[in-house]
C-alpha cells in the first residue's frame, strides 16, 4: 500500500475471491460456477457483438432489460442491469448507507457485504445465526436499518421462506431490504413477486450461477421505480456503460434459451441432493443446502486439512478460516463424474483420519 491511499481504505480488508489457479488442471469446485457451458446461441451472440467493440455499449441495456422484464414478468422500470450482482449490491450500499443509515446482515453470509460497507463508510451490525446456521427472521424485523440477506444464504445454502422475507420487508418500511438471490434458481423461493407490494424491497440476481455466465459478469436488481431510480443515479455517477455489449448479448441469448438453463439447474439440484446424502453417510455434518453448493464439516478432520488434502489430489473446494465456520468447507456442485471423484477421495481421507 502506498502512503497516498486515503485513511478509510488503508484499514479496509478487501474481498478475497476464490482461487483461480493456473498451475494445474483442477476439478474446480470452489467458486460456485456452473459446470455446464453457456448455450451455443450465446457463443454466436457474443461473436456477433465482437465486431462492434469499437462502439460503446447501450448504457440502458435496453434489449436485455426488455428480455429480463418479459421472462420474469416485471416492468422495464423495475429493473437495472449490472456488471455481476456484486455491482448492484455495491450500488445499494452506496445509495442507502452512510451517516446514520446502517446495514444489518448475518455474521455468517457473503463476505462481500462488510467489504462494501467498509468501502462506502457504512456502519453495520452482524447478527449471529442460530447454532445450526439458520437465520432467525425475527432478528431482522423492525431493526431500523437497511437489511441485506442472501436467500439461499452463502455459504450455508439455507433458506428463509417468502413469509419470513415479507415480514422483514413489512417491518422495516423506512429502510431498504435487499434480498440477494444469487442461488435462488437451485431451490429457493424468490421474492421477485413481492417488489410491487413492498416499495422498500430490492431483489438482486446474477447470471453467474444458473445461467453459466460467471465470466461475462452480469446481474440485475429488481425493485420499485423509486429504488431503481436511486440505483441508476449511482450507476450514472460511476460507470454508465457498466454492461459491455458482448455480455448484454449473451444475456439476451441466455434468456431466449431458458429451458436449457432450467434443466441444468434441475440436474445440479439432483446431484446436490445425492451427494448431500452420501456425505452425511460418511459422517459429515451437511447443511440442508438449496443452493449449488454443499457446506460440510467432519469431526475427524479439520476444515483446513480436508481442503489441503483434496487440493493435493487436484480437487479445489473453498475453505473459510473465519470463526465460527473455520471447520467448514463449501463445495460447489459439479458434474456427477467430478462429484464422484471428490467423494471417493474424501472417503479415503476420512478412512485414514
Ligand atoms: N451474492 C452472493 C451470495 C454470492 O455468493 C455471489 C458470488 N460470489 C454474488 C452475490 C456475486 O456474484 P456475481 O457478482 O458473479 O453476480
Q: What's the story with the biggest beta sheet?
A: 7 strands, mixed
Number of strands: 13
Record the strand order, biggest sheet.
2-8-7-6-5-3-4
CATH class of the largest domain: Alpha Beta
Instruction: Please tell me the total number of domains.
Output: 2
pLDDT < 50 runs, ≥5 residues: none
The CATH topology of the largest domain: Aspartate Aminotransferase, domain 2
Strand content: 5-15%
Q: Output the helix-strand order.
A: HEHHEHEHEEHEEEHHHEEHEEEH
Please give the count of helices.
Answer: 11
Distance between the termini: 42 Å
CATH superfamily of the largest domain: Type I PLP-dependent aspartate aminotransferase-like (Major domain)
Q: Can you give the mean pLDDT?
A: 97
By secondary-structure content and strand pairing, the structural class works out as: alpha/beta
Instruction: Report the principal-axis shape.
Output: globular
Structure description:
This protein starts with 6 loop residues before the first helix and ends with a helix. The protein has 353 residues and is of the alpha/beta class. It folds into two domains: 7-37 and 259-352, Aspartate Aminotransferase, domain 1; 40-257, Aspartate Aminotransferase, domain 2, CATH 3.40.640. Helix 2 runs antiparallel to helix 8 and helix 3 (62-72) packs parallel to helix 8. The mean pLDDT is 97. It is built from eleven helices and 13 strands. The protein has helices spanning 7-10, 40-50, 62-72, 84-96, 112-119, 162-170, 225-235, 245-255, 258-281, 303-312, 336-352; strands at 27-28, 79-82, 103-106, 124-127, 146-150, 177-180, 201-206, 219-222, 285-286, 293-297, 315-316, 318-319, 329-332. The protein is globular and about 55 Å long. A hairpin with a 6-residue loop joins strand 9 (285-286) and strand 10 (293-297). Bound molecules: 4'-deoxy-4'-aminopyridoxal-5'-phosphate. 4'-deoxy-4'-aminopyridoxal-5'-phosphate is lined by residues 84-86, 110, 150, 154, 180, 182, 206, 208, 214, 219. Residues 84-86, 110, 150, 154, 180, 182, 206, 208, 214, 219 line the site of 4'-deoxy-4'-aminopyridoxal-5'-phosphate.
